[in-house]
């Protein structure tokens, strides 16, 4: 009997890891590329549309204001209606907005296209994260969210050469059209063919495999279907605490991206060398995400893992101003460690979010946390630029500030230790779930 249970578990895990997660990652890799590819087109856009630097920055940043609009509705629709249908609609809308960027002729049209792209993409991530929550029990969720976060290094590795290739043989208009058309052709087909809202709707799972997934979640005290609302999410203190932590981590990430790339260019001189060397931090980040997520699930120490990673990030950022461009291998080492630390906390963080956020606030709560957190990415450059100006154009004060931001985030994470320990040690809620033989032992601290 024990052997049979083990086989069922391995089969159900294999299908979730090899079907659900790869499609989710692919969808958001395409999202992230469509969001960031404007950086490669900006020099051409400025020349063709006669845009100033401020106008180009305004058009780029308009994405984030649109991105905020569907964050909360995106999570709500995924929980209350259907993540599969909701994301399918958004894929079509964001693809249309991305392609439309290739047909713009002035600043107004470009700003509108970027805003609509942000609106469409804004509802995608909360829905994808709700889907992961439905398919993975808490004991596996840190690994699942860590794999999802691989979209960052994957998109960074793919975007630059792809955009460069298109811009070499065509122009910026074709870059937007080709990269924007990808999700409609490939992503939508994969999403509709494979993804199901819950294991209960997956015809490619056997009954035993389906029952194992659902039983694992109920044994951890989680309902199989959430019926959350907007009010519960907006009035939940824990949701706003998570939003604050996420905002701080995004600010810290901006500190890393402001300093290290410029020093890297000075240290390694040529664009070719910089391009090759810049891939190493992304590869390291991908490995760190997986290792930290796996370790957090295996040892059940989600808070410890988050604090350790954020602490390393704080030290690297705060000490970055002491490194000169002449110390090129030290610069590279700092960039590798800093990049890995800046995002490796992601899996344990979102696993903790889905465990501690009240059921009534689940879907909309994810949207609030992600939406508010991304404001850190919007205001970070302004804060960093202001600190650089008052320090005479250097980055030392800027880096110390962003390092302290990471440290504060780590301290706030520590306040969650007791809550998470109580949540993971409490008996399952609901009839028929307490005392189930073979229930997984979930520990966290």
From TrEMBL:
Q: Which Pfam families match?
A: MFS_1 (PF07690)
Outline the extent of the Major facilitator superfamily (MFS) profile domain: 20-421
| Membrane-spanning segments | 20-42, 54-74, 86-105, 111-129, 150-170, 176-195, 238-260, 272-291, 303-323, 329-347, 359-383, 395-416
Q: Does the keyword Transport apply?
A: yes
Any one Gene Ontology MF annotation carried by this entry is: transmembrane transporter activity
Which of UniProt's keywords are assigned here?
Answer: Membrane, Transmembrane, Transmembrane helix, Transport
Which residues are the signal sequence here? none
Q: Where in the cell is it found?
A: Cell membrane
> What is the topology of this protein in the membrane according to its UniProt annotation?
Multi-pass membrane protein
What the entry lists under InterPro entries is as follows: MFS, MFS_dom, MFS_trans_sf, Sugar_P_transporter
Output compositional bias ranges, type Low complexity: 434-445
Region annotation (Disordered) maps to: 424-445
In terms of domain of life, where is this protein from? Bacteria
An example Gene Ontology cellular component term from the record?
plasma membrane
User: Is Transmembrane found in the keyword set?
Assistant: yes
Return the protein name. Answer: MFS transporter
